[in-house]
Write a structure and sequence with these properties.
The structure is a homotetramer of 338-residue chains.
Chain A: E1 2-7, H1 11-22, E2 26-33, H2 38-45, E3 50-52, H3 55-63, E4 68-71, H4 72-76, E5 81-84, H5 90-101, E6 104-107, E7 118-120, H6 122-125, E8 134-137, H7 140-156, E9 158-168, H8 194-199, E10 207-214, E11 220-228, H9 235-244, E12 249-251, H10 260-270, E13 281-283, E14 288-290, E15 293-300, H11 307-318, H12 323-333
Parallel strand pairs in A: 1-2, 1-5, 2-3, 3-4, 5-6, 6-8, 7-8, 9-10, 12-13
Antiparallel strand pairs in A: 9-11, 11-15, 13-15, 14-15
């Protein structure tokens, strides 16, 4: 059994913790957290051992009546791998701690590429991460783009990808963030960081991205314009390639799915934890090829798409499981649609 | 086993169907629906028998590759009780059909009080519904208010209740409805229909309500101002009464719950189907008594709060189960927090 | 001519500055600001002299190519009255500066009542402010409530006012603030501060308020429930009283006004600066009297309702103009609807 | 004096009417409308003669106490040109009426290209419209794109333009439309109709567009990706070309403009009617050239950008004024920023 700890219990941490708990070959040793809020309360109800982020956090948990496993250092002493799901840039501060503890680490996409030895998406570069100490599961947008572009590149060779990303402005549990009734260019400059970030996973893809924030709380909406090298590609072949691509979901207007709200409602129907959707959703009817240029819309569930990659990364750094085997276990445990 | 059919498979119907399927004493015979959309697709995956709303619907399902149990008439021939979860005012049109089929019916709160013999909230008037043919499970707002006001009235005798309701403007699966960046008075007139609707359940409560729509998709937010007959009531006693009241949830700022978005995120953590919350959520810190007037905020999850009442109403109309027994079975099967 | 300076040029400051510039008996000496943004640019185009909030601000303006009148201290040396429209709580820090300069000051409602000698709404307590050095023009919600409750109290004697306020969560020029798809209780506790704030203007009114934030950028929506002392009051008499009350607007469903968005669109049609609405808007059809309790909906344009009070307060502190005369000049210059 | 009537008094009609009233060479004979709402009320206050859309409308206005000029037929008998600003597809129904009356007509972009002899944007094809009877002022998005692409094509020759459009989902005066917290693909298919619509004005531009609706009420946000034929173009040259292009506004992060909300607030500061912005706003810092591909963000105020084109189209159909002269008069009367 792989002994896993999860440091940070926000949007990503709690999902990864639940996914770890479902793996037949992993044991969730505990989770580390700063505050005794409702997320802690339900973690405790699930039987997760709670560790405080530091001594003060431990005190806070004890005052609130929790039994605590110690600080994050105590957690590190008991695990093979830690998943760092702390807020952006905190992972960097934690790295020395992890190094001292001698544990392997999965960082998240909020950290810079340089923090790790590999920026990871399972289907693209699993083997590169084998045996490494520091691996970075890339951000939600990068994960979605990497899965899709890798699949298309394998099938048709991508010459050039141009992507416009309408980003959800806040997560459902962060109701102080806006905008309301505005599009925020944040930053105003072009290109956005997403293109170079995809290249940390797929270095050979020519990709340029533009991004802005809109008043929604779920799903980033990507508009893709890809020039293909291969001639004679048509919509049907693209649909086939994407259908066969791992961890990608095709949705259709015919199913009544005409909005990101419908995709999320569909995900809730699936009965997964929290109504999550681990697959990027691509609209079949939006797929269009004009003179060798491929167009389509894709929606990415920002809260959950990186969960399978975190799980695979845990196996990868330990080096004992093959890519095919790991992805199969992960997919089965999470009831992936692929 | 009580044989149950569900006619209509939108926001309420699919939730009631899943809840029926979980009852130890009920069998979900099938569900009736108009279109082969993603909701139908997942119903089929769950093994639910699908019936078409009419002949055309049956044809549509067959064309889309579904196996169909027949029309809604065929469904009615096989059930003891049908839950009518059709859109507002369609229940009225269906009533003659149900009468001919000789089935018992649970209507929803979108229908008028007059459609049924009893407007039903389990804890308030279960026994009145015993053996009746037509019962109406009241709307989400009425259900939330009835549970809370009944509990408070039992404890402290309510002299007068005044309530302002900020209504969510659309459900998550209806993304064409607004407003965006506006409060809609719909209608402009005061009082709103909610007060009289509560009185269909609790005829002796003096209640007047005002209501408007705001740009949200989940939870109605109620501001309650209740004058109590009993003297000397303080916040602690109110908290105790509500804690002990059935099917009511107290939430707290201390848990980090400071917005309806937090309540919904908490509900997702609970791991119930679709992240539903069957209990109205009342903020502990908002409870305040000033000179015999009680104030507090309550949030109602419009998609799911009526699910337990539908289940209890099914048992009530058949007359064989006591209120206490039925509520206990329902609560256990739905993992209610009470 | 009254020499006026405006310190702070955000939502309120720029509106007050324009209003000052329109008064026949006032001269806008200049405005003080921190940054050379688009607001500064248009102020310069209007010919307003710009002062920097401090030396660094002056440098910033010069670098950006502005001609600058000096720092705020230089502004103070040239004025009789300064309107402090700095962000919440900055007014308090500025007070010593103003005292040293020996100028009279109009603070805004973001400051505490204690900062000034009078919390001011023209029609309620103009004379109290006469000759004072420090006066506070109260916040938008307090201004709207004070005008309306004062008018109703004069006509019918208010025994008790209960108000629920759905607050716009951010101003149109602050697009980083949320919530999106949530109601924020901020704070969760009841009553809100608005009731006591109204009592700084109308000390004899028994008022208790509840408040929350909703995802809109314009207009607070008030739901009022007022118990009247006078007997036999009916809707018609209330409509008459409010029609005759100063600086109050009655709107009607018959005009097609059924939402706060319609009120704002109506205001844009009026052709005032920035589409502002200086009057609280009360829906005629929402006015309802039941057993001596009066109900209605009122919308308050948070950006502009305090502008007339600031202008009147300037005249009041100088002591030379009567209430009636000042309000008449202000109303005429701003094309008020009353 | 050109005698002008405006049929339809919604978002576009009332703006065009006000603009007509400001032209030194035009007389607004009257406006036709269906209902006596607040827009009618303020039109009457401005002294506009109101005509009913039909006999019933006339009756409605009279009942509401308006003096009425007759029906739209009576209006047509008194004008040289009518601007049809009726809802989408109603213009088509009106065409026969206009033909019989022998008046020249300016249709709006909601109508099909085929309704008119020319789809019009002043700077692109003014002369084509000279003397024609039926001209169509194209939609807001098409107007913004045509102005910008025409300017860039003149300067650098556009090889290919790809545009993603995040559309505001509803106008500020239509608060029943959504979505709330969703992106609506409406329709799901790609490309959107905007590309072909631009080609009705600029037939030689290779343009493909993708579009979706987001929860905002003001400004469409365009992401442009243009391949240029001319070599060696850099950001500075693009900025210069756009600065010199007619009726285009460059905005900057340095002015504090980082969101569409800021653009709209800037427009309100300008002091124009209703806070309108007749120019598409392009962010300077977003302009980027990479390997001959030009990227930038542009925002289009959907309510007002077509106003100048309507005015110029009126002069064009009468044939007596040159393009340069007409645009100059229009620009001056509307205080355009160019």
């Amino acid at each position: 059994m792989i002994r896993v700890g999860v440091n940070g219990f926000g949007v990503i941490g709690r999902r990864v913790a639940d996914a770890v708990a479902k793996q037949p070959d992993m044991k969730l040793v505990g989770i580390a957290k700063t505050r005794p809020d409702y997320k802690a309360q339900i973690a405790a109800q699930k039987g997760y051992t709670i560790f405080g982020s530091d001594d003060e956090a431990v005190k806070g948990f004890k005052t609130a009546g929790y039994s605590v496993g110690g600080t994050v250092k105590d957690l590190l002493a008991q695990v093979d791998v830690v998943v760092d799901a702390c807020p952006e840039d905190v992972g960097k501060e934690n790295k020395e701690l992890y190094r001292k503890a001698g544990v392997k680490v999965i960082f998240q996409g909020g950290e810079d590429h340089e923090i790790a030895q590999v920026s990871f998406v399972a289907q693209c570069n699993y083997d590169l991460a084998k045996g490494k100490q520091f691996v970075r599961a890339v951000s939600c947008n990068t994960t979605g783009l990497s899965r899709t572009l890798h699949t298309l590149d394998q099938a048709f060779q991508i010459k050039r990808a141009r992507v416009v990303i309408a980003r959800r402005a806040s997560d459902p549990d962060e109701p102080t963030k806006g905008p309301i009734d505005s599009v925020n260019l944040d930053p105003v400059t072009v290109p956005s960081h997403h293109g170079p970030d995809v290249q940390t996973v797929l270095p050979n893809i020519d990709i340029i991205t533009m991004a802005y924030k809109i008043p929604t709380t779920h799903m980033h909406l990507h508009s893709l314009i890809c020039t293909l090298k291969q001639n004679g590609v048509n919509e049907e072949r693209v649909i086939n390639a994407l259908s066969e691509g791992p961890r990608i979901l095709l949705v259709s207007q015919k199913q009544g799915i005409k909005a990101t709200a419908h995709v999320m409602d569909y995900a809730r129907e699936l009965g997964r934890n929290r109504g999550d959707l681990y697959e990027p959703a691509i609209w079949k009817e939006s797929i269009k090829v004009v003179d060798g240029e491929l167009y389509f819309f894709m929606a990415v569930h920002q809260e959950s798409i990186v969960v399978p990659e975190n799980i695979d990364a845990i196996r990868a750094v330990l080096g004992a499981t093959s890519k095919t085997e790991s992805m199969a276990i992960t997919d089965r445990s999470l009831a992936m649609l692929t």
